[in-house]
TrEMBL record:
Family label: Belongs to the SURF1 family.
GO cellular component: plasma membrane
Main location: membrane
Bilayer disposition of the protein: Multi-pass membrane protein
Source taxon at top rank: Bacteria
Lineage, highest ranks first: Bacteria, Bacillati, Actinomycetota, Actinomycetes, Kitasatosporales
Location(s), subcellular: Cell membrane; Membrane
PROSITE patterns linked to this entry: SURF1
Keywords recorded for this protein, A-Z: Cell membrane, Membrane, Transmembrane, Transmembrane helix
The protein's name: SURF1-like protein
Organism expressing this protein natively: Streptomyces humidus
Length: 263
């Protein structure tokens, strides 16, 4: 009944099925790996946001690369804003997906070192893209700011190209080493996304906390791939049985061959 399995069509179907099973199993494990990565990242972010703020000097120094465990940590800094060397970061969007700028203002600490503070988002309100936008002034004098510590931005991590030849005081990426060269001062590694004090008039718009990644979706995809892998042999067996029944029915309906009568 099952000699048809040796046909070219069924040999190819069987080989494809045997190839699909381990491939789907591996895809399931890959999705579980993504689930574990995202869950661990979500936990790191949650722990960092829940921790009490610490002085920024305890976590970063000039030239320091902000680590994964330091990212999003709440920090405080005391000093004064240097609006004379303020710059803007191009092509940034707010919560409503409107394109504008992030305002990056050097914050001179009491010991003379500089901390880069992202004060938030402003719309592209200049007459042209080459003009420097109008930026609301920060508080004057010595103050204490609170924010989330972030690593320097890179093209590899963000996908944003570091374009050259931009208008004066406009950049694509926030990079402490680049700003240290521009300012001629010791700049702490990374930068801080300001969360307090809130600006007067609600502008610049403070940047909200990072959203959590949907790790549950990866878990569901893993289960789905494993169910697919279990369904392949079941589907193959169902097709084989159906074809065997169809061949048997066709053979039963075929007219019997009769022997010629003797002369």
């Amino acid at each position: 009944m099952y000699r048809f399995l040796l046909s070219r069509q069924w040999v190819i179907l069987t080989l494809v099925s045997l190839l699909l099973i381990p491939t789907m199993i591996r895809l399931g494990f890959w999705q579980m790996h993504r689930h574990d990565e995202r869950a661990a990242r979500n936990q790191l972010v949650s722990d960092a946001l829940a921790a009490d703020p610490v002085p920024v000097e305890t976590l970063t120094t000039p030239g320091h690369d902000v680590t994964r465990s330091e990212r999003y940590r709440g920090v405080t800094a005391t000093g004064a804003f240097d609006t004379g060397h303020e710059i803007v970061v191009r092509r940034r969007v707010n919560a409503d997906e409107k394109v504008g700028f992030h305002v990056l203002t050097p914050f001179v600490l009491t010991d003379g070192r500089v901390l880069l503070v992202n004060r938030g988002w402003i719309p592209a309100n200049a007459p042209s893209q080459t003009d420097f936008p109008r930026i609301p002034a920060p508080p004057h004098g010595r103050i204490t700011v609170t924010g989330r510590l972030m690593p320097d931005e890179t093209t590899a991590a963000s996908g944003i190209k570091d374009l050259k030849g931009l208008p004066d005081r406009q950049v694509m990426l926030i990079n402490s080493e680049q700003e240290a060269r521009r300012l001629g001062a010791p700049v702490l590694g990374g930068y801080v996304v300001q969360t307090a004090p809130e600006p007067k008039g609600d502008t610049p718009e403070l940047l909200g906390p990072p959203g959590s990644e949907d790790s549950a979706l990866n878990f569901a995809y893993a289960i789905q791939w494993w169910l697919f892998s279990a369904g392949v042999p079941f589907g193959w067996l169902t097709l084989a049985r159906r074809e065997a029944r169809e061949r048997a029915a066709a053979a039963a309906q075929a007219p019997e061959r009769t022997e010629p009568a003797p002369v």
